Amino acid sequence: VKVKIPFGNKYLDAIFSVPEKKSTYGVILTHGAGGDMNFPHLVSLAAYLASHGVLCLRFTCKGLNIAYRTKAFKTVVEYLKLSDDYKLLGVFLAGRSMGSRAAASVIRHLSQEDDDDFIQGLVCLSYPLHRPKLQSKLRDEDLLFIRCPVLFVSGSADEMCEKQLLEGVASKMKAPKKIHWIDKANHGMAVKGRTTDDVMEEINAQVFSWLRENIELEH
User: Domain KANL3/Tex30 alpha/beta hydrolase-like spans what residues (predicted)?
Assistant: First the structure.
C-alpha cells in the first residue's frame, strides 16, 4: 500500500507491506545515504516480515544531513502511531547504514521527551560506526543513551564498522543488545561466493527471530 506522509511542506514516499492477519507490531524501515526505500535489501526484509505476520512501513528520505533524516523518521513514527488503519501496540525502528543512525537518534530523542513504550526496539543493519579508515571518531553517542533492545546485523569485513570497535561499544551500552555478524560481508553486505538472496535470507531470518523474541518478552 503506497502512502504519502506529510513532512513540513512536502511529502515522504512510503510503502506498507501488510500481513494477511492483523498485525499488533510493526517495523519502520529506511535506507542508507544512497538509494531509497526500494533498495533490494529493504524490499526483501519488508516482504519477509509481512509474510511472517509483521507489518512493515518503509520510507524514502533523501538528504545526507543526519538531523534532517532523524526529523523525517520521527514524523513517520508519529504518523504510524496515529494511524487509524493500523492500530499497533508498538513498533521497532530499523534502518540500513545512515538510516540506522537516524533510527537510533529518534529513539534517543523520543525517550527524553516521553516514555510511552510505543517504540519497542532498534534494528541496525550495517550500522556505520565510523568513516572508512577513520576509527578514532565513533558515532556511538546515541547508542549509549538507548534503553530499549537493539539488534546489530553487520558484516565482519565492514569497512565502516570494525568488529572489535562495535563489540566495545556494545559492552558499554545499557540496552539489551545482540550482534549478528555476517561472515566476510562488507558494508553493502556482499560476500564473495554467496548470492545476495542467500545473504538476505540469513539477515531476514535473524531480524525476524529477534523481533519475535522481543515481542514475546513484552507479553
Answer: 27-209
